[in-house]
Write a structure and sequence with these properties.
Elements (H helix, E strand, L loop, with lengths): L5 E3 L11 E4 L3 E6 L2 E7 L12 E8 L5 E6 L8 E6 L4 E5 L4 E6 L6 E6 L6 E6 L3 E6 L4 E6 L5 E6 L6 E6 L4 E5 L5 E6 L6 E6 L12 H5 L20 E6 L3 E6 L4 E7 L22 E2 L7 E5 L5 E5 L7 E4 L13 E8 L5 E7 L3 E6 L4 E7 L5 E6 L6 E6 L4 E5 L9 E4 L7 E6 L6 E6 L4 E5 L7 E2 L8 E7 L17 E6 L4 E4 L9 E2 L1 H8 L8 E6 L5 E6 L3 E6 L4 E7 L5 E6 L12 E6 L4 E5 L1 H6 L5 E3 L4 E3 L6 E6 L6 E6 L4 E5 L4 E6 L6 E6 L6 E6 L4 E5 L12 H11 L16 H4 L9 H5 L10 H9 L25 H30 L8 H6 L4 H16 L6 H9 L9 H17 L3 H11 L2 H11 L4 H6 L5 H17 L3 H10 L3 H10 L3 H11 L5 H17 L2 H10 L3 H8 L5 H13 ...
Parallel strand pairs: 45-49
Antiparallel strand pairs: 1-57, 2-3, 3-4, 4-5, 6-7, 7-8, 8-9, 10-11, 11-12, 12-13, 14-15, 15-16, 16-17, 18-19, 19-20, 20-21, 22-23, 23-24, 24-25, 26-27, 27-28, 28-29, 30-31, 31-32, 32-33, 34-35, 35-36, 36-37, 38-39, 39-40, 40-41, 42-43, 43-44, 44-45, 46-47, 47-48, 48-50, 51-52, 52-53, 53-54, ...
């Protein structure tokens, strides 16, 4: 089975009448989000034999919003053309072969809802929109016609296959019209009968009306079909049947010759297998149709729950239908079907393709009505990918549509063998992790903080942990139990527990045996074990080393902490990223070099990936935690944040990274080299996983709703795009739909537009939804959904058919009334709050306190006279007033002013009621005060939320307790009005200090809360510290680092203050943070920050600033010396114009730059003058400080500034050792510096080190080394060899110039130009050396005899004897043999794995041969490759070679193995070259020896060819 790329595409768009289509020959397309995916079906798909014949072959990218319509051109010769319509307002015409836009128009002003390419006119595309406007567009003549038939929302339209001018249109309200576009859209028939949305219109494939024997009489009596407007027969309306499917659950067949319905098919209520959906609910139905070309008496339709029916139209009275896939269980769609399109393959199979809400595309064989294959798709971001360690090839995908997909990638019969798991998820799946040993046990985490466990082999719902995270679950990991879960015997606790890291920054440990029990926050254990006092960092990532003994936690501040089991003792902190850590990955343990399992790669919101080697730290198990600030390897190239990392299980040190820059990158981490870059996604990558079986195959997922399987060997690019390309990718990404709040449409717009982005925008759906996720739901959920009309993704707000006001629909009528009554006064209050008071001041006379009484006193004379009589009767009757008088007084309440108190009270009540009704509560309150009922006034005002400062100020009159109560009530009221500060002030007035502070804190008024707490509480009150810390955390999150630092200082948490200041990572912030840490006594932190600051300034070549930063801390004295030496060396390089970055912006220190004396003397002079370093004790102290720092070895990709710093560190050690007369250490330091430059391939720097530190050669060092047998002698020999090696290359290059000039080595008698050619010197230098020397020109002709050797030249060539060392040549040969054998073995293992995969096809391995060759010898020349093809080496032979080489190496003394040596064969080759070009320069004896060495030790691939050319 040859490997091939695969795509898991986004889901086809929902609620569109035509957004998939197919053409004969086997090309199918469906609209998904903003693009169209193309699928080749049938023999042309080149599918692997035995698997379904289809393949996703590409994507049409160009629209910026959801694609709402898609149609192919069905004219032979034009099958490559298709049209799309989109919510961005355009209709585009595409060529699918080139995947480019041919032309486009933006004629529609409103959302386009229907589209069709005329089957009769080969360049006519008809489109309709929500306002009822139809546009006809003729492609060839670029002409268009605007038709406005009805002011209704168009749902679907279909052009007639028999008459070029007829188009049938279905509307939202159930009307169907047939129009003639040649007559300006004149309506030929208006077909009435449906009473809800028309979802599909299909013309009968045969013209005329003879194909169906319909009993007309039966139908003419059907009262439910009112006849349409009958129009006289014209030649244009030749008889033809038309079928329509509607949301009203019926299919109607219409006769065009009579313009009326002739048959009605009612959908049957089928018992759904696997959980039913209530068929009476219209919202759940989409009725789409397909009238098969070769079977006009049959019609295919969708049904309620995703079933497909084949209707037999020959016996209309029997309503006879056949169910698709009736025999096989579980083959049908599980949700409504939106589109059906026929496809005839190259081998003449009649297929039908269906798209559905269940997110599957299914292909049906029309001959058998069985499902041939299913293409699953994704309805959300692909957040997480995880391969099962037990069930090989089983890939779990966590998707934003609330479902987990489990893809059996090794299935031989089905490329897309995908199972869906949705029960109990109901939210975006953001994290996945398989149990390392238990089959089918999959842990998942969601964006609402849920953690659960699925058994993928059963149909049971998942177990859900009772402890939720407060925010999104970022990562899950299985690891050994730690306390308190680790207590108990072996059988009482699980061997592995589940760790989850959530967005709020905590890591929880869950017991998989008892998820209902409490999960434990591991921070408590970390705090207790390591007795940490300061605030623990916010955790963002967790990763366990494969052996389960070491845990790494990544944090929001960019630090990574390494803990050791069983009690999570902190052994190391890595300060590298300085931005939120997103990904940590440990190297696997089964590589050829076991020590690689200590490599840990990490990625953060910075685009750089760091690899750290933690072997030393973990093995030494330090007492107190170590801080690491230098990476082992740095992988730079991405231009946006890193989201996921994965090591290849097949290679050593090969890593793949996923990034927001839209690409996945494969790295050789050990060489810091980018290898392959995948750019297939149209969005930001979120996850990546290496195939466990195929070393060439990687899976990646992104926010473009896609998962791609891709092969590294097929990638054109080797590194991420920089500059313009990166911008193009960004544009490509921006062409995706942007999540945005849904626009409120007018009630007339059709329902689907309200859900248009349900599957388009990372389900805005689930984000705000309390409703269920629309993806395979249980029965109860279904009923729940039904209550909200049509929420396609479980999220859209309720949308009913009529325009609805905002009263909650679910409340009963009475409840609604109550709600409204409650709300009215609030509105009045708002209105009255500001206006009335202003008006009272301006028009005090105009507004009476007793307006009703006043108006009653201004009535007619008769009424006033009557008042006097009633009043007299009431006042002067001795007895109780009669009932009549009482009634009169009741009516004339204004007379209360003149009668008794009870009547006056009644008058005041009536006046007060009037004030309230007119929206003047303050006048009502004054009246009540006149009455003396202050307590009542306060209670009423409090109930109505109308308390004022005035009222509360008067409250003490009613007593102390009433005042307290009134102030509290007023504070509550102020909170409802968002006046929190004022509310807090009132609480303070009644001495509720804590409540006031809590109120301000909970509403984020931290500044005010702290001011009150400081002023009113004791300084040691814990509330104050809590306020500072809470405010600090919020400020830190928002990026206000300086203010956050002040908060932490206020809370006496100085450590956190320094950390937060350093977060920004620029030099100024780091310097301030270091000074702050120094002031508060955090010396270790201060030193690390000062060093980071100095390194930042070093990158900007600000030497003065760097020294000032290092001055901050005494313990950095050693580093000051390193930086000083680095500055002097850089200056020297710059003066010689060797430094690659010669910049005028370097700010050097004004040190006395005495140019006299050698470089070392100048350095020590500056040290003495600038740092007062002159006594042996001081030298010793500095030496000890620096000896503790270890830097990793260099590679070809180490940045030059970093390389120089590392080299200068070793040179400083060498100079300090010289000053202390410790010559052994001086030699070792110098050798290490030379080795760093040699390993990185930077020959220039190596030569500069030689000229600065060994200007006279190595003789003076030889004299100083007291004992020739001292342990350092081998190191000295090695240093001397590298010195000679450098001189040898310089000598050779001086000869290789077109006109060799006189130098200390050669004498040019008179100059004459020699003709020179560039020769392929690359062949003559070992591939390990990629120095500048590898590309220097060399003379190809024997030079004129005018170049002679000087005495120095002869001496130099004589010293080259040192380079031709038998011992070293033999050792290097053995090492090369081992490397070669290991490479061959690794390749054989890869081939074996591939052949396991390819058992089904005999030709599998042969196909992969070229790939193997390419990978095997990436760096070797081509001719070499050809030779290798014929060499087949058996496994025993390889093992034998390996054993022999290892035995040979074991015999060498340690002294030789410890110290490196220049490549002996390389030196032999150069000497032979010089000898052949300049006879006589190299002695015969030396040439003889060089040839012997090449013949003897040149048997490895690297040197084979050179030996043949030079030694024959």
């Amino acid at each position: 089975m040859a490997q091939e790329p695969r795509t898991l595409p986004p889901s086809p768009n929902w609620y569109c009448s035509r957004c998939s289509d197919a053409v004969p020959g086997g090309l199918f397309g469906f609209a998904a989000r903003t693009s169209v995916f193309l699928v080749r079906v049938g023999p042309g798909a080149d599918a692997i034999p035995g698997t379904p014949p289809f393949r996703v072959i590409g994507e049409l990218v160009g629209h910026t919003e959801r694609v709402s319509g898609f149609t192919f051109c069905h004219h032979p010769g034009q099958y490559n053309l298709c049209a799309t319509s989109s919510d961005d307002g355009t209709v585009k015409i595409w060529d699918v072969e080139t995947k480019t836009v041919v032309t486009e128009h933006a004629l529609h002003q409103h959302t386009i809802s229907a589209l069709h390419w005329s089957p009769r006119v080969k360049d006519l595309i008809v489109s309709g929109d929500e306002k009822g406007v139809v546009f006809c567009y003729w492609l060839n003549r670029n002409d268009s016609q605007h038709l406005f038939i009805e002011p209704r929302t168009i749902f679907c339209l279909t052009c007639s296959p028999h008459h070029e001018d007829l188009v049938a249109i279905g509307y939202k309200d159930g009307i169907v019209v047939i129009i003639d576009i040649s007559k300006k859209g004149e309506v030929i028939h208006r077909l009435r009968g449906h009473d809800d949305e028309i979802h599909s219109v299909a013309w009968c494939p045969l013209p005329g009306e003879d194909c169906l024997s319909i009993n007309q009489e039966e139908n003419s009596e059907e009262a439910e079909i009112p006849n349409g407007k009958v129009i006289a027969q014209t030649p244009g309306t030749k008889g033809c049947y038309l079928a329509t499917g509607s949301k009203d659950q019926t299919i109607r067949i219409w006769s065009c010759s009579r313009g009326r319905g002739v048959m009605t098919l009612k959908l049957p209520f089928l018992k759904r297998r696997g959980g039913g959906i209530d068929p009476t609910v219209k919202e759940r139905l989409w009725l789409t149709l397909h009238w098969p070309k070769d079977q006009p008496t049959q019609l295919v339709s969708s049904c309620f729950g995703g079933e497909l029916l084949l209707w037999d139209l020959t016996q209309s009275w029997r309503r006879k239908y056949t169910l698709f896939s009736a025999s096989s269980e579980g083959q049908n769609h599980s949700r409504i079907v939106f589109n059906l399109c026929p496809l005839q393959t190259e081998d003449d199979k009649q297929l039908l393709l269906s798209t559905s809400m269940d997110r599957d595309v299914k292909c049906w064989d029309m001959a058998t009505l069985e499902c041939c294959w299913t293409l699953p798709s994704l309805g959300g971001f692909a957040y997480s990918l995880a391969f099962s360690p037990v069930d090989t090839g089983c890939l779990a995908i966590g998707v934003g549509d609330g479902m987990i997909r489990v893809w059996n990638t090794l299935s031989m019969k089905n490329n897309y063998d995908v199972k869906n798991f949705w029960q109990g998820v109901k939210s975006k799946v953001t994290a996945l992790c398989w149990h390392p040993t238990k089959e089918g046990c999959l842990a998942f985490g969601t964006d609402d903080g849920k953690v659960g466990l699925y058994d993928t082999y059963s149909n049971k719902p998942p177990q859900i942990s009772s402890t939720y995270h407060k925010k999104t679950v970022y990562t899950l990991a299985w690891g050994p139990p730690v306390p308190p879960m680790a207590f108990g015997g072996e059988g009482d606790r699980p061997s592995l527990t589940l760790y989850s890291c959530g967005g709020e920054g905590t890591v929880l440990q869950h017991n998989p045996w008892k998820l209902s029990g409490e999960a434990f926050d591991i921070n408590k254990l970390i705090r207790d074990t390591n007795s940490i006092k300061y605030k623990l960092p916010v955790h963002t990532e967790i990763s366990w080393k494969a052996d389960g003994k070491i845990m790494a936690l990544g944090n929001e501040d960019g630090s990574i902490e390494i803990f050791k089991v069983p009690n999570l003792k902190l052994i190391c902190t890595i300060q590298q990223h300085h931005k939120l850590v997103n990904a940590i990955s440990w190297h696997h343990e089964h590589g050829s070099q076991p020590e690689l399992s200590y490599l840990m790669a990490s990625g953060s919101n910075n685009a750089v990936i760091y690899v750290h080697n933690l072997q030393t730290v973990i093995e030494s198990n330090p007492e107190s935690p170590v801080t690491i600030t230098e990476p082992y390897r740095t992988l730079s190239g991405h231009t946006a944040k890193i989201t996921r990392l994965a090591w290849s299980p097949h290679h050593d040190g090969r890593l793949v990274s996923a990034s927001y820059d839209g690409t996945a990158q494969v790295w050789d981490a050990l060489q810091e080299e980018p290898l392959y870059n995948f750019r297939g996604h149209r969005g930001r990558l979120l996850c990546v996983a290496w195939s466990p079986l195929d070393p060439d195959c990687i899976y990646s997922g992104a926010d473009d709703f896609c998962v791609y399987k891709w092969l590294t060997s097929m990638q054109e690019h080797s590194r991420p795009p920089q500059g313009k390309k990166s911008i193009e990718l960004e544009k490509k990404r921006l062409s995706q739909p942007k999540p945005k709040p849904k626009k409120k449409k007018k009630p007339t717009s059709r329902v689907p537009t309200k859900q248009e982005l349900c599957d388009g925008n990372e389900e805005e759906s689930i984000k705000e939804s309390s409703g269920p996720v629309e993806n395979g739901v249980s029965d109860q959920e279904t009923e729940e959904e039904v209550r909200e009309p049509e929420p396609p993704c479980g999220d859209t707000p309720t949308v009913s058919k009529e325009p609805v006001t905002c009263t909650p629909a679910s409340l009963g009528l009475e409840k609604s009334k109550v709600t409204i009554n409650n709300k009215v006064p609030v509105l009045k209050k708002e209105a009255s709050k500001e206006k009335p008071e202003a008006l009272i001041i301006k028009k005090r006379k105009a507004r009476s306190m007793l307006p009703l009484s006043t108006s009653l006193d201004h009535r007619s004379k008769e009424e006033l006279h009557q008042d006097c009589l009633v009043l007299a009767t009431a006042k002067h009757s001795k007895a109780e007033p009669s009932e009549d008088v009482s009634a009169d007084l009741e009516e004339r309440f204004h007379l209360g002013l003149f009668t008794d108190r009870a009547t006056l009270y009644r008058m005041i009540d009536a006046e007060g009621k009037g004030h309230l009704e007119n929206g003047h509560p303050e006048l009502y309150h004054q009246l009540m005060l006149w009455k003396g009922d202050l307590k009542g006034v306060l209670q009423t005002a409090a109930e109505r939320g109308e308390l004022t400062d005035n009222l509360v100020a008067m409250a003490p009159v009613a007593g102390y307790h009433v005042w307290l109560w009134a102030v509290e009530a007023f504070a509550k009221q102020l909170c409802f009005q968002d006046q929190y500060v004022k509310a807090a002030s009132h609480l303070l007035s009644i001495h509720k200090v804590y409540e006031a502070i809590e109120l301000l804190k909970s509403n984020h008024f931290y500044r005010e809360a702290i001011a009150i707490a400081k002023a009113r509480l004791r300084p040691e009150d814990p509330i104050l510290r809590d306020l500072y810390l809470s405010w600090g955390a919020i400020l830190e999150k928002d990026g206000h680092y300086a203010l956050a630092a002040k908060c932490y200082l206020g809370a006496t948490s100085a450590y956190d203050a320094a950390k937060v200041l350093a977060k920004k990572g620029d030099a100024a912030s780091l310097r301030t943070a270091a000074e702050l840490a120094s002031i508060v006594g955090e010396s270790e932190l201060s030193a690390s920050l000062a060093l980071r600051c100095a390194q930042e300034l070093l990158m900007a070549r600000n030497w003065v600033g760097a020294q000032e930063a290092l001055q901050l801390h005494e313990s950095l004295k050693g580093q000051r010396l390193v930086f000083c030496l680095l500055e002097l060396l850089s200056k020297q390089l710059e003066e010689k114009q060797l430094s690659e970055g010669k910049s005028a912006s370097s700010s050097y220190n004004a040190w006395p730059s005495g140019s006299e004396g050698c470089f070392v003397e100048r350095v020590t002079a500056v040290w003495k003058s600038a740092f007062s370093l002159d006594s042996p004790e001081q030298y010793q102290a500095a030496l000890q400080q620096l000896q503790n720092i270890k830097y990793p070895s260099a590679t070809n990709n180490t940045p030059s500034k970093q390389l120089l710093l590392h080299i200068c560190h070793d040179l400083t050690l060498a100079v300090l050792s010289q000053q202390l007369a410790s010559w052994d250490m001086a030699v070792e330091g110098l050798l290490r510096a030379v080795m760093q430059s040699y390993d990185s391939g930077n020959f220039t720097i190596m030569q500069e080190v030689h000229s600065a530190f060994l200007p006279e050669g190595c003789d003076h060092l030889r004299d100083r080394l007291s004992d020739h047998e001292s342990p350092t002698t081998p190191a000295f020999k090695s240093l001397e060899a590298f010195f000679i090696y450098g001189r040898l290359y310089e000598f050779w290059w001086s000869l290789s110039r077109p006109c060799p000039e006189s130098s200390i080595w050669i004498r040019a008698v008179h100059r004459r130009t020699t003709s020179v050619e560039q020769s392929q010197q690359v062949d003559n230098v070992s591939p390990e050396e990629t120095d500048p020397k590898a590309s220097q020109p060399e003379p190809s002709k024997t030079p004129e005899p005018d170049v002679k050797l000087t005495e120095e030249g002869e001496q130099m060539l004589n010293t080259c004897k040192e380079l031709i060392s038998e011992k070293h040549a033999s050792l290097q040969n053995s090492q090369r043999t081992i490397a070669e054998v290991q490479e061959t073995l690794a390749e054989m293992i890869r081939q074996h794995q591939k052949s396991q995969l390819c058992k089904s096809t005999a030709s599998g391995p042969d196909k992969n041969e070229p790939e193997r060759e390419a990978e095997e010898s990436l760096s070797s020349p081509q001719s070499q490759r050809k030779e290798e093809k014929n060499e087949a080496v058996s496994l025993p032979e390889l093992t034998k070679r390996l054993t022999e080489a290892n035995e040979r190496i074991a015999k060498f003394p340690e002294s030789i193995k410890t110290w490196p040596f220049p490549d002996v064969l390389e030196c032999c080759l150069i000497l032979l070259h010089i000898g052949s070009q300049f006879p006589g320069f190299v002695t015969q004896e030396m040439q003889q020896q060089a040839q012997e060495f090449l013949l003897k030790y040149g048997n490895t691939k690297v040197y084979k060819r050179q030996c043949q050319t030079l030694c024959t």
